[in-house]
Amino acid sequence: MKRKISSLVLVVMMLVMTVAGCGNNSASSSGSTVETAADKQGKVLNIYCWNTEFQDRFEYFKSTGKLPSDVTVNFVVTPNENNAYQNALDAALLKQNEAPADEKIDMFLIEADYALKYVDSDYTLNVNDIGLTKDDVKDQYQYTQDIVTDKNGVLKGVTWQATPGLFVYRRSIAKDVLGTDDPDKVQAALATWDKFDSVAAQASSKGYKMLSGYDDSYRVFSNNVSAPWVDANNKIQIDPNIMKWIDQTKTYTDKNYNNKSKLWDTTWAADQGPKGQVFGFFYSTWGINFTLLGNALETPEKEGGKQEVGNGIFGDYATCTGPQSYYWGGTWLCAAAGTDNANLVKDIMQTLTCDATTMKKITEDTQDYTNTVSGMQSLANSDFKSAFLGGQNHIKLFAEAAPKIDMKNMSAYDQGLNEELQKAMHDYFDGKVTKEKALENFYTAAIEKYPNLTK
Questions:
Q1: Strands 280-284 and 72-77, how do they pair?
Q2: 283 contact partners, CB below 8 Å, separation of at least 6
Q3: DSSP string covering 396-415
Q4: Which residues pair with 318 in a beta bridge?
Q5: Residue 115: its pLDDT value, please?
Q6: Could you give the domains of the chain?
Q7: I want to staple 360 with a disulfide (CB 3.0 to 4.6 A). Which of 16, 79, 316, 375 is the partner?
């Protein structure tokens, strides 16, 4: 996923941990690629990822006792920025056939922004070939499977989470600007971009910023494009909806509707805290329970495993759908061709992405939105509440948004092109270059990153 945590500032590193359990489930296999692997288990399970988040999820799998005691688990972590993770993963995959058994990649994680690059390759295995059945994955959201389904219709990965997005706003600021903090009434005021712009003007007149910075609304626009970033002739296409983001953001900057921050910078993070004067933030599921919660509390205190109120802003956020449905992020698990631990990879996938009880428990414990339609519907229709969101059941809104996610316009180049476009436009928003020059700089950087593409 696209959230940043402290581990991402680290250089390429290897985290090694030995975990113990008992028992083992052997995987059924229909492909020769994993036949030997299923019959003969390796001694080392190598998992490639870009931060330590998956290790938290892995802890549950470890507690199930399915991992043999004589298996060492290596988490090979490389930061995601500037394609660093992909570059490290690619280098390792190129050596996969020649690598000693204990150094082969067994499983690796991918994001939606570049999933097709690996899904449409021989480096990923059909999940059916390592033992997952159609019945196992039937309760997952369809879009989470579409992202990792190759051009031949083969499912090449699974995920424990779904990541629909919402608009998260400060209740106290909404009351001051709109006279209410009720999610339904706030949604009515923000239901279209024209209405959103109108509220931005109202907020400004009261001394507030509508958004923190340049990148806040980007994913809403980029997830509602009419065509992929790259056409069939490898030509880069800047969708009209992306141009709308550029124009809106420039307007917000010139009218002082934003705080001129950039995604993940210190100003952006501080704007989410108790001293922030920003109306709201576009966030998907992970963003609320991880990033926003941490930024809002600044120095969160924990006692008995529960987050403490701390500074008074706890409970001052709420969610609504916003002008458009969108999604942001997500992490998928792929079995690597050549693994000698297909049975263990299958157990991890089945436990963390196919077991509705496990995933529902993850949501109850962390408020992450997990990839079980039945489980999330159950919580949506329950008295589930988020204290951080002032007692709101935000799972209900996520459950309404998730089925609307459409992945038909994704491409293998999304991460790099999204990052380069945003980076190039920052200079335009800052008034350093014209829009035309910023677009020219984007094309130059994009083609340097992907030499097979053209303007």
A1: unpaired
A2: 165, 166, 167, 168, 291, 292, 328
A3: HHHHHHGGG---TT--TTHH
A4: 169
A5: 93
A6: 6-162+329-377 (3.40.190.10), 165-324+385-404 (3.40.190.10)
A7: 375
| Two tokens, residue 248 | 């809106």
Q: Give yes or no for a contact between 129 and 162, defined as CB atoms under 8 angstroms apart.
A: no
Residue 115 contacts by C-beta under 8 Å, 6 or more apart in sequence?
147, 148, 157, 332, 410, 412
**Between 367 and 338, whose confidence is greater?**
338
148 vs 8: which has the higher pLDDT: 148
Average pLDDT over residues 136-147: 96
Name the amino acid, one letter, at 315: G
Rounded Cα–Cα distance for residues 30 and 275 (Å): 58
Q: Which residue has the tokens 């995920």?
A: 159
pLDDT at 288 over 80: yes
Could you report the per-residue pLDDT of 397-453, keeping only the tens digit for each?
Answer: 999 999 988 888 988 899 899 999 999 999 999 999 999 999 999 999 999 999 999
Query: Which residue is it, tokens 């990052």?
Result: 419
Provide the residue type at 382 as one letter.
S
Q: Nearest Cα to 414, choosing from 237, 213, 194?
A: 237
Q: Which one, of 33, 50, 48, 43, lies nearest residue 67 by Cα? A: 43
* Other CB atoms within 10 A of residue 190 CB: 25
Mean pLDDT of the residues in the chain:
88
Model pLDDT, residue 37:
39
* HSE of 174, CA atoms in CB hemisphere, 13 A: 24
Residue 179 is encoded by which pair of tokens?
């006279």
Return the residue matching tokens 């570059």: 87
15-39: average pLDDT: 36
Helix ranges restricted to H, 84-148: 84-94, 115-119, 142-146
Please count the residues of the chain.
455
